[in-house]
Amino acid sequence: RGYSDETLRRFQLGWDKERVTIPIYDEYNNLANIRRYKWNSPEDHLKVLNYVDELGNSYGEVRIFGIENLVDPSIDDIVWSEGETDRILSEQHGFPTACPTSGAGTWKPEWAKYFKNKKRVYLAQDNDEAGRSATAKLCEKLYRFVDVYVIQWPEDFPVKGDITDFYIKLGQTTEDFQKLLDNAVKYVDPSIESRVAD
After folding, report:
1. By the 8 A CB rule, do 151 and 123 touch?
2. Cβ burial, residue 151 (10 Å; 0-12/13-18/19+)
3. How far apart are the first and last CA of the chain?
4. pTM for this entry
């Protein structure tokens, strides 16, 4: 997936003999979950599993992976990706990124407070119907707290393509992704747009 050795160490990625392990920390830097990723799973719902301990306790509460970027007051702009592996690669390229630990469109009302001290959030969801639907829902949730920009994938971008595909399959660079951010479309409240049109 294009990760450098430095990235493997930074994100403490591991291997449990079945799956890649991705530690998830809360806003206090406490270990809250370990996501278990299998890149070649035939079914999407089995691609990422939550850690279950020897007593059967699951740690699958939906969290923000990358919450440290949201609570850091020195970071103004955030990329919001669809999944953990995209977030990791985006960070490797120098873009502060976060995502939910449960896929496209997930949102908790209590997350709003983390965006109030940010200037911009860039939505980089997958290039499919689920991703577009998630983008629309996230725009409606976020625009009240932060300026929301929607990344426009290239016209020839693969169906279901994501941040990882942008770098790995298409061979694009950090500079190319920065151009996507520079050309992202700002979301405008539809009620404002209708008043301007009138």
Report:
1. yes
2. buried
3. 49
4. 0.92
Strands 147-150 and 185-186, how do they pair? antiparallel
Residue 92 phi, psi dihedral angles, 5° rounding: -60, -30
Residue 85 makes CB contacts below 8 A (sequence gap 6+) with 1, 37, 39, 164
pLDDT digits (tens, 9 = 90+) for 164-190: 999 999 999 999 999 999 999 999 988
- The angle at the Cα of 133, spanning 86 to 116, to the nearest 5 degrees, equals 70
Strand order of the sheet with strand 14-15? 14-15, 20-25, 31-37, 48-50
Residues 116, 139: Cα–Cα separation, whole Å: 14
Answer yes or no: is pLDDT of 194 > 70: no
Q: Percent of the chain scored above 70 by pLDDT?
A: 94
Output the pLDDT for position 198. Answer: 47
Closest residue by Cα to residue 123 from 98, 101, 102:
98
List 77's β-bridge partners, or say none.
120
